[in-house]
Amino acid sequence: MYASSQGCAKHPEVPCSQPPLRAWEPAPSRLRVAQKVCSLLICQEAVVAEAHHAGFDFPALPCLQCPRVNASGVCETGESVCETQGSQRCFLRKVYEDDTLSYGYQGCSSVCFPLVLFNPAVTLEERCCNDSPFCNKF
Length: 138
Description:
By secondary structure, the chain is mainly β. It has two domains: 1-47, no CATH class; 62-129, CD59. 10% of the residues lie in helices and 32% in strands. The protein has one helix at residues 30-43, and strands at residues 62-70, 80-83, 89-97, 100-109, 115-118, 122-129. A six-stranded antiparallel β-sheet has the order 2-1-4-3-6-5, covered by helices on one side. It comes from Puma concolor.
């Protein structure tokens, strides 16, 4: 169930799994939890047992796809389009450094949780949608 902390395939420097806590171990810090969530989002290796939508599959939806969007909203690495499949949704992730938008990325994913994670210098915001084509516009 838990892999060794060798990292994930896409980003070997990011540990994607940790062993479970024992009853006598202290709870992880907020920073550690944020790092864990970020590593799962970046690696997209979380195992999804069921769709996050009560088992419903949605019709294919076109989403904007870009591994690196700059602060001006311009894709720096070649914009393309992906189509959701099964329980996937469009996602948009934005990274802020010291309250200033730094960069973002967008695409299709079955692992998407609308959230905002705060760190003293960095904030990660994730938005998920499946209500209209290209709903993940930066």
